[in-house]
Structures are given as C-alpha cells and as structure tokens.
Write a structure and sequence with these properties.
- The structure is a single chain.
- By secondary structure, the chain is α/β, with parallel strands linked by helices.
- Helix 5 links the parallel strand 6 and strand 7.
- The longest helix is centred in the C-terminal third of the chain and has 30 residues.
- Belongs to the small GTPase superfamily. Ras family.
C-alpha cells in the first residue's frame, strides 16, 4: 500500500532511517515514550481510514483489503514527544455466537498498551461485536488496566444509519469505556481526541510506575568484599606503622 511506504514504519526506524526524517527522531535525540495501540472492529467500519487520519491528518476513501499493517510515528501530545505505534487489524466476525479471533489478532491485543474498538453507525452487526470484543480484550488483559476507547465511525452518513448514536454511548458507559462519535472523512479533531485520551492514559500509567523503578535503582549496591578487605588490610598496616614509630 503506497501510504504505508510513505510513512515511517517500525522497520525503517529500527534500521536507522535518515535522521530528522518526518516521523523519526534525529540522531542523539532523547528516546520518546513508547505507546502501543491496537485498533480492532468488524470489516468495513473504517479502521484503516481512522488510523491514517490520526497519523497523517489525511483521509483516503478507498483501501486495499486490510492485511494488519503496523504504523509508527512520533507525535507531540501535551508538550511531550511520544513514539506512537498503531496496529491495524483485519475485520472480526461472529461465528456461531462467538468471536472468530485468530492468533494474529490475539497477539495484537496482548501486545497493545491500549485499544480502540471501532464500529460503524451504518452497520448494526459491527455494533453487535462491541460487547464481545470488549470482553475478549479483558480476557487477554485480566488486570483490567488496559484503556479502551469505543469509536462510532461514519457519523456523517445519518441517512443510512442503522445504529442510534446514544446506543453506542450507553453501551460504552455500561462497559466503562470512553466513547467518541466521529466522521473520519470530515473531522480530524474528533479522531485526534479519541487517540489523545488513550495516549494520555497510557502515559499516566507509565509515569506512575516509573518512580518505583527509580527508587529501586537508587538502592545502594553492596560493597565489594574485595574492596572491604583491601581497606581493612590498609588500616591494619597503617596502625602497625604508627605503633612502630611511637615505640621508637
């Protein structure tokens, strides 16, 4: 996909792409905080368009079949430079009353620091997936600390809607998730706000765990036994020399 090639991917950054290139930090710059986000939902709800809109501000209406691309970009949020990795995922379906989730999708969910669950207001089946997806995420993250945002996409297509916006909001409230209704094609700010909330929450969790690691690193290391032995021998030798001089 041409757009993926024009963006700074994980592999390109790891290979040491040109310093100062768009989306990649210059050589010698401080390493930014890493935030990993997975975007999941049914087929055709606009997951790829949502990701690309957030990372590039551009809207492209037509995409090839979603192959699960991983996008990377450095973005400044609230004055802090963050290394955002966003994992796009293939569409999920319900098969015999249960989610049809393959190993690739499960790995993506486990890998993520936060998740965006997307449905389309023009597709009621994608709305029915929400609760199943949410509980599947909680099964893979049993600690219940991974932030989840529910996004209702295609808000501009009210003339063909199948889901009332308030239904998405009510379900999100019941699940304890933040909810955003967006039109990826018409409004970048709403898309940015949805990801902004997740980035802030992940950054907050990472920051609260950092002081503990710092306190641990400040614990003094035990002194080397060899060095202690050398100091003891030096003191003994010095004392013996002093006693000799005094007796003379």
């Amino acid at each position: 996909m041409r757009l993926t090639q024009s963006m700074c991917t994980i592999a390109e950054c790891a290979a040491g792409g040109a310093a100062g290139a768009e989306g990649c930090p210059a050589a010698g710059a401080a390493r930014p905080r890493l935030v990993k986000i997975a975007v999941v939902g049914g087929s055709g709800v606009g997951k790829t368009a949502l990701v690309v809109r957030f990372l590039t501000r551009r809207f492209i209406g037509d995409y090839e079949r979603n192959a699960g691309n991983l996008y990377s970009r450095h973005i400044q949020i609230d004055g802090e430079m963050l290394a955002i990795q966003v994992q796009d995922t293939p569409g999920v379906q319900i098969h015999e009353c249960s989610l049809d989730c393959n190993d690739q999708l499960n790995r993506c969910i486990r890998w993520a620091d936060a998740l965006v669950i997307v449905f389309s207001i023009t597709d009621y089946k994608s709305y029915e997936l929400l609760s199943h997806l949410y509980h599947h995420v909680r099964q893979l993250h049993p600690g219940n600390t991974v932030p989840v945002v529910i996004v209702a996409n295609k808000a501009d297509l009210l003339h063909i809607k199948e889901v009332e916006p308030q239904h998405g909001l009510q379900l999100a409230n019941m699940l304890g998730c933040t909810f955003y209704e967006v039109s990826v094609s018409e409004n970048y700010n709403d898309v940015f706000n949805a990801f902004h909330v997740l980035c802030k929450e992940v950054s907050k969790q990472q920051t609260t765990s950092t002081p503990e690691r710092r306190r641990t690193s400040l614990i003094p290391r035990p002194k080397s036994p060899n060095m202690q032995d050398l100091k003891r021998r030096f003191k003994q030798a010095l004392s013996a020399k002093v006693r000799t001089v005094t007796s003379v």
